[in-house]
Amino acid sequence: MEKIMPRLKYPIAVPVKAGLKTINLFELRAETSLRDNVNDFREYADVLYSAHAPTTIGEERLNIAATDRDFRNECISVFKDYIDRCAMFPNIGQINMHFGLKNWVSETQPRGQKGDYETHIESIRTLSDYARTSGIEIVLENLNCYWALNNISDDTDFAQVNWNNSNEAFGMNPEEWIQMCLDVDRDNVQLCLDTSHVSTYGHRFPEEEREGKIEAFLNRPDLITHVHWSDNYLYDVRGRNDSHLSVGKGSIPTDFHRRVKALEATILLEHFYTKEELHEELEYIERL
Hints:
Layout lengths: L12 E3 L4 H6 L3 E4 L15 E5 L3 E2 L2 E2 L7 H18 L7 E5 L2 E3 L13 H16 L4 E5 L26 E2 L4 H11 L4 E6 H8 L4 H9 L8 E6 L24 H9 L3 E4 L5 H13 L1
Parallel strand pairs: 1-2, 2-3, 3-6, 6-8, 8-10, 10-11, 11-12
Antiparallel strand pairs: 4-5, 7-9
């Protein structure tokens, strides 16, 4: 199988589930997922350049924005422990984090249901200062809009959804995602663009507005230093889900993908299916 090396600033990464043999075959880098224990991947140390922080503690979602101080501090401690573990790897320079929760009322979330913006900013600064001692950058990921978790059926028209009464996290819309990074104001806190998540946001709007709405996520390319690159269905209801299609297999506009490719950011293809599909995807990216 001929190697395809798309012209990018940094080598592309794939999830560790692709396996070390495949990662080395394609001369790629790797990232652990939010479900992985980074300590289980010592043998990947040479190719592991980024890691996804956990998002839960037991069944509860972590919430560093929580107005519940005890739970918030517990969550901050979880992230500090994760930073310590990542610091033991020679090449991990970025940790990807999900934003905290604005509002999350659920039987599985007895604590930390409510979040506060300024509290969130201060918590990120605390983690930024902690990560700095290990030379680690924190990248903040724009989040999924959680249509299914809010029990919104595919038959429900987008205009009928009242998002004010829904479970939401911070950083779902592009304006807030960018502003929070600016408000944190730390040189080791930047942004992670998740292109599958942007589709879930685009579905909040009429079809004719969606392309423009997702382009807003690229308004500050200078702040984007990491990407979770996948495709999704921007123009049919499947795109309300976080589909994680191979790049080029969905309906996110080609020009959007070209702009992602041009970013001066580390890039993770946040999916792995087969070596053949990976090869095809790398060929597609090379042609962009």
